[in-house]
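Q: Sequence in, structure out?
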Amino acid sequence: MRRIGVIFVWMTAQAQSFYTDSLYRQAQRWYFLTVQQEAYLPRAEAAFQALIRKYGPQPPLQMYLYGLTALKARYAWNPFDKGRYFRQAVAQMDAQVARTPNEVEVRFLRGSFYYYLPAFLGKREAARQDLATVAALLQAHPHLYRTRYSSEVLRAIVGFLRQTGWIPADQLQALESLYAL
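A: Exactly. Output:
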């Protein structure tokens, strides 16, 4: 029984420690740079794969890889590749949200991806739900997210929530106050 307890403590430490890893912070930057420029995609992908090898398949790390698959769809020239990457990304993201619905990054990454999709693809309501969940989680657990994310990341998340126009102004003000943004 003692051995199980030691393994659990080790696994818990491994699961949480990627948030403080400098490679994780760099991988996040490369991910968001990839949104603007395809050239960062290989670096971001390699960094998240390295983090998964080091810390295991943590949901946020996996979700970033799924987001990179979505970006491959965006940058693909071949329409067949574009469609294949898109379908793969949607299936992976939906499955990850179903497995871990209360992970801020998981919901934020899918919500922000779906936000930019054309309405006829039918993902607008999922995007609204994802981003409302992000706002609610950030509001409910500021002590957790202040330690987990840099102020730069929190500012970007709250800024995007504001940009959508879907989150009530009083909730956005509460988030800005909670996180001193």
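Residues 158 and 172 are 7 Å apart (CA to CA).
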